[in-house]
Amino acid sequence: MRKKNDQIRQLLIREAAHLMFDEGVEQYIDAKKKAAKRILGKTTRHLPSNGEIAEALYQLSLFYQGDSMNNQLFQMRLLAMDIMEQLAIFNPRLIGSVSTGRIRQDSDVDIHIFTDNIEELQNYLEKMGWQYELKQVWIDKNNRPVEYTHVYLVKEFPVELSVYPVNEIRVKSRSSTDGKLINRLSVVALRKLLMTEHCDEWSDYINRCHISEN
């Protein structure tokens, strides 16, 4: 019985991942429910975790788009580094798939920034000449809804800035995907990641920058 349940779980994981990869289903919960209806003909409480589907989705992306995904990851990390350097006064930290390297084609750049003055942040963004959109997002925190500001930047890749109070910079939060603690990368840590995981691309990038400066 357990073996059969494990087999069904694996089928649900693969089907949910394909729904997100091939058919553009965006939310894990929607992909899981649709997968259950296709395979079992009904919904079930025993659905796979978001983390299991995220891993299967990453493996699909790697199999079908490996080379292009590696290049995209490098470009997204470069963009993240540039934005973080320019937002240094807000103590930016990179999180999510761009930090872990487990991106897919429609991934965005997720950055946490810290300020107690939203107006100061808006003035800074306008001074930079960046196109952006502000939205208020409700997040469940310790079983109560808390409102946070999210900023969406118009760049070559979608960028989302999640704005937190300054006193939360050392607060550890967990990923909604796999429940693990979120690792926030500073710009220094991100630069080291670029140098170690993309050494050839980074060397070419540095050489191009040196040539353009001269």
Explain this structure to me?
The protein has helices at residues 2-22, 28-40, 50-86, 96-100, 118-128, 187-197, 199-213, and strands spanning 93-95, 109-114, 132-141, 144-153, 159-164. It has 214 residues and is of the alpha+beta class. It has two domains: 2-48; 65-213, Beta Polymerase, domain 2 (2-Layer Sandwich), CATH 3.30.460. It starts with a helix and ends with a helix. Helix 1 runs parallel beside helix 3 (50-86) and helix 6 (187-197) packs across helix 7 (199-213). The longest helix has 37 residues, at 50-86. The chain has seven helices and five strands; from the N terminus they run αααβαβαβββαα. Strands 1-2-5-4-3 form a five-stranded mixed sheet.
Secondary structure blueprint with pairings:
Blueprint: H1 2-22, H2 28-40, H3 50-86, E1 93-95, H4 96-100, E2 109-114, H5 118-128, E3 132-141, E4 144-153, E5 159-164, H6 187-197, H7 199-213
Parallel strand pairs: 2-5
Antiparallel strand pairs: 1-2, 3-4, 4-5
Helix pairs in contact: 1-2, 1-3, 3-6, 6-7
